[in-house]
Design a protein that fits this description.
162 residues, four-stranded antiparallel beta sheet, 6 strands, elongated, alpha+beta
């Protein structure tokens, strides 16, 4: 039985070449995963902010104002009290908020601040329908590397309930 001996210098060169090919690809893949995960987290934050803002505004409409003798919140109040506290690791200057009151009878959307904020509307046949609040949150996200700026947008619509 014969054994063939290889020189250790030949194998070291092969390991170096393999490492020069595999390590950069692995690091690039790792970087893409980290940046992509950060982007997904940022989008989920925007979606959560729109859901919470719509839920919060839906219970602070016309009935809330009448029952509590407190003014219904403005769009800026919703931004300050709901959206910004949920903006962990987000630049507030890159956030925009749009709040609309949607008439359940006609489907027409009106700016929240200039709307009646009524919980119910009447159709032409005299039936009551529930109005809705529509909240849109947008955020401009610029990842640290690789991609240009992306705009994440989430729209949530809740029925008015108070």
């Amino acid at each position: 039985m014969t054994f063939r001996h290889t020189r250790s210098g030949d194998r070291t060169a092969a390991i170096t070449v393999e490492g020069a090919i595999v390590i950069p690809v692995f690091l690039l893949l790792l970087l893409v995963i980290v940046v992509g995960g950060t982007g997904i987290f940022q989008y989920e934050q925007v979606a959560c902010q729109s859901r919470e803002a719509a839920r919060w505004a839906s219970v602070r409409g016309g009935d809330y104002q009448r029952e509590t003798s407190l003014a219904s919140p403005t769009a800026n109040d919703i931004l300050q009290q709901v959206v910004l506290p949920l903006a962990a690791n987000m630049d507030p200057s890159h956030l925009t908020l749009t709040v609309e009151w949607v008439n359940g009878a006609t489907g027409a959307a009106t700016s929240w601040d200039s709307s009646s904020k009524a919980v119910k509307s009447t159709t032409v046949s005299g039936d009551y329908v529930t109005n809705k609040v529509r909240v849109t949150v947008q955020c401009l996200w610029t990842p640290a590397v690789m991609f240009g700026p992306l705009t994440f947008k989430s729209v949530c619509e809740f029925p008015m309930s108070f």
